[in-house]
Design goal:
The chain is an alpha+beta fold. The chain contains four helices and nine strands, in the order H-E-E-E-E-E-E-E-H-E-E-H-H. The termini are far apart. About 3% of the residues have low confidence.
C-alpha cells in the first residue's frame, strides 16, 4: 500500500510540479507568469507572434472533416479534428492533434519555437519534419484533384 501511495505521489509531483502554467489574457499568452506571445483569437483561427514582433508569424487554424470510417458511439459524426500551424514568415506548415489554446501555447513552448523572443527556424523545421501534414494526407480524397472540362 505504501508503494502505491509513493508512486501516486511521485506521479502527482511530476505532472503538477514540472508543467508550465499558461495564461492567455488581453492578447498575451504568458508561461509561468512571463509574457511570451501575442495571441489574437478570431473564432476558430489564431494569429500568433513573438512578444516583441511587429508581424504575424504563426497562423493557427482548427480544422475538421467527417469520415464515415471514424463513426463510433462517442463520435457519431465521425469527425476528425486537428490544428494546422502555418509558419507564415518561414513559409512552412504542419498539423498537430487538436488541443485547447493553453495546449497550443505549451506545444510551442516545449518545442522551443521561440528562442530569445525570436521565431527559431531550426526548431520549426524539426516540428514540420516530425508532424508533417498527416491529417490532410490521411483525409479520404484529400490528395485527389478533380478537373471539370466544359
Amino acid at each position: 500500500m505504501k508503494k502505491i501511495f509513493f508512486v501516486g505521489l511521485l506521479l502527482m509531483v511530476t505532472v503538477f510540479g514540472f508543467g508550465q502554467k499558461v495564461k492567455i489574457k488581453d492578447g498575451v499568452a504568458s508561461v509561468d507568469g512571463v509574457a511570451w506571445l501575442k495571441w489574437d483569437r478570431r473564432g476558430s483561427e489564431i494569429s500568433v507572434s513573438g512578444i516583441n514582433s511587429t508581424q504575424e508569424e504563426i497562423y493557427v487554424m482548427y480544422l475538421d472533416y467527417s469520415d464515415p470510417k471514424k463513426v463510433t458511439s462517442s463520435n457519431p459524426e465521425g469527425k476528425v479534428r486537428w490544428i494546422e500551424l502555418n509558419f507564415l514568415t518561414l513559409k512552412k506548415k504542419c498539423e498537430i492533434s487538436t488541443r485547447g489554446h493553453d495546449g497550443i501555447v505549451k506545444f510551442l513552448f516545449e518545442n522551443k519555437v521561440y528562442v530569445d523572443n525570436v521565431l527559431n527556424a531550426e526548431n520549426v523545421d524539426i516540428i514540420v519534419q516530425k508532424y508533417g501534414m498527416r491529417f490532410s494526407e490521411a483525409r479520404p480524397g484529400g490528395n485527389v484533384n478533380i478537373y471539370i472540362n466544359e
